[in-house]
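Consortium newsletter contribution from the modelling node. Members have asked for a concrete example of what our holo predictions look like. Here is one, prepared for the adenosine-5'-triphosphate complex that several groups have been discussing at recent meetings.
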Amino acid sequence: MPAEATGSHAASESVGTTGTTTRDHDAILVGEDVIRRFGGLTAVDVDRVEVKRGLITALIGPNGAGKTTFFNVLTGFDQPDSGSWSFNGRSLKGMPPYKVARLGMVRTFQLTKVLAKLSVIENMRLGATGQRGESMLSAVFPTLWRSQEKINTERADTLLQRFNLDAKREDFAGSLSGGQRKLLEMARALMVDPDLIMLDEPMAGVNPALKQSLLGHVKGLRDEGRTVLFVEHDMDMVRDISDWVIVMAQGKIVAQGPPLEVMANPKVIDAYLGAHHDSDLSVEEEEARLEKVRERLQAKTGPRDREDGDPRE
Ligand SMILES: Nc1ncnc2c1ncn2[C@@H]1O[C@H](COP(=O)(O)OP(=O)(O)OP(=O)(O)O)[C@@H](O)[C@H]1O
Ligand SMILES: [Mg+2]
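And here is the predicted structure:
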C-alpha cells in the first residue's frame, strides 16, 4: 500500500474548519489490523486508522467499501476476525454496544432504528440505557431510579427542543418523516452525552431543508467539544463540514487528508471507478463515469436537491 494511503493523521497536517491543525488533536479512536470477512469476501481490512479528537472526520467510499461493517465492528455490533481497536486509550475488543456507549462512543444507523410503535419521548428515554443499570436500579433502589428517570426525561426534552422535535414528543416515532427520524436518532444518541458520535449516512433520504438543519447540528456537536465520525455519500456535505476525510475502497483505507485535497486525489477517483471494474467499460462509458465522479467529488455548488431519494447510485 502506498505511503500516503496509510499512517496516522499526524503524517499530514491540515487546517480544518476549526482553524486548528490536525496535529493539535490526539486520537480518540484507534484501530489496528482490523479484518472482517464474510465467507470469501474481505469486507474490512484496515491496517491502521485514527480518528482525531474534537474534529469532524468523514469516512467515504463507494457502495460496498466496508464502511458500515467497519462501524459495526468498532461499536461492538459485529465481531472482526482479527484486530484491535481502542477508544480513549481503552481496548473495546469484545465489548457489547451498550458498554461502548456507556464509555462515550455511540453510533446511528444507515437505516434508522427508531422504534416506530413507541413515542418520540419513549425512544429518547431508551437512548439513556447506556447510563445506570435501569433494571437493577428499579428493583433495588426505586427512589434512585426515579430520580435518574427524571434526569433522563429532562435531558430528553432539552434535546428534543434542540432538534426541533419537541412538538412531536408524544407522537409515534413511526409517524415522523425520514429526515425527522435521522434527527431523532442523533438526539437519542446524545442521551449518553458521548465524546464520539458516529453517524452512518445521516443525510440519506433527508429533504434539502432538513439537510441544512442537520449540517448545523453536526457542526454544533463539534462546537461543543464532541468528536464526529460520519459516513456519507453526499460530497457537498463532506466538503462543507469535514476537517478530515478517510477514503475506504474494498475494505481498505486508500487515502486520507483534508477534504479538498482528498477529493482531487486521482486515487480517490479511481476508488470510486474501481467499484465498477468488474466488467470492461467502453471509452465513452469510462469518460462518462469519470466525469460523473469528478462532478461528485469536485462540485463547488450548494447541496443538490435529492429529496427522499437514495443518494447512492
Ligand atoms: N452480514 C453480511 N454478510 C455477508 N456479507 C456482508 C454482510 N454485511 C456486509 N456484507 C458485504 O460486505 C461488503 C461491505 O458492506 P458494507 O455494508 O460495509 O459497505 P458500505 O461501505 O457501508 O456500503 P454502502 O455505501 O452501500 O452502505 C459488501 O460487499 C457487503 O455485501
Ligand atoms: Mg453502509
